[in-house]
Amino acid sequence: MNNKVNSLESLVALLPVIQAAVPADMSIAVCDLTKFIAYYPGENIDLHIGVGQQLNPDEPLAAAILENKYFEGDVPASFYGFEFTGTALPVHNDEGVVIGGLAVQIRRHSELIELSNHIVVALSQANERIAKAVSGSNIIADLNRQLLVLSQQGSQNVEKTDQVVSIIKNVADQSNLLGLNASIEAAHAGDKGRGFGIVAGEIRKLSQETIDSTRNIRQTLLSLKEVTQQIGDAISQVASISQEQAVSTEEISAFIREIQEMTNRLNDFAHKL
């Protein structure tokens, strides 16, 4: 590597040309053996190095001069407030003696990397929560389907009960008619049929009470059937909405996975910058 110059001043004179010719945003610094003698900041990277500023013995440029060795690496934020990638080159005079150093700095996209990492973590957490939501939505949808089946079974049982009530009412009607006929026959029998007439009256009374009770039961069953039907309709709507929500949540989860994949690629790219 040819890093000989007539003087550090001649090297400094070339810095604006070098900076303009390189298709990258960078800053360039030149120092003698102890201090900086020139600094040209970039558009987005400025180390705020002042002319006459002393070299930090721990930074790569000081090591390059001391060890007469080319260095390339990442400079931590503890030196200048942010991390950057830099090169440090010892500069020789015509006799090959180290008279200073040249440093080029390109800011690392650590902010981009950090942001990308945060996005990856956030998307991963969001995806986990959505996966749990999908699982919960599916469970709710299954429970709603079970409730709908139970509601339909309840409605069918109400109809069966109504059939039983109809049979009881028919029996009560027949008993009432039988009691009426028995009362008429008891009246024809006179005193001999008086006891039988009392029994017939009680049968008619019981049958009438049964008829009244079956009427009330039927009205109650009718109300219960209406309520059961309303519950079934509501459960059906909830089941449909839950299913739609589960599908939508799965679509969102797939979308987040796609974004997460793109963010991972962005993260890989950011680390290569």
Automatic annotation (TrEMBL):
Classification via InterPro entries:
Chemotax_Me-accpt_rcpt, MCPsignal_dom
User: This protein's superkingdom?
Assistant: Bacteria
Under the heading SUPFAM superfamilies, the entry gives: Methyl-accepting chemotaxis protein (MCP) signaling domain
* Keyword check for Cell membrane: no
Residues of the Methyl-accepting transducer domain: 155-273
Q: Which SMART domains match?
A: MA
Q: Which UniProt keywords apply?
A: Transducer
Q: Which PROSITE patterns match?
A: CHEMOTAXIS_TRANSDUC_2
Gene3D superfamilies given in the database record: Methyl-accepting chemotaxis protein
User: What family does the Swiss-Prot or TrEMBL record give for this protein?
Assistant: Belongs to the methyl-accepting chemotaxis (MCP) protein family.
Protein name, UniProt field: Chemotaxis protein
Q: In which organism is this protein found?
A: Paenibacillus sepulcri
Q: What is the lineage of its organism?
A: Bacteria, Bacillati, Bacillota, Bacilli, Bacillales
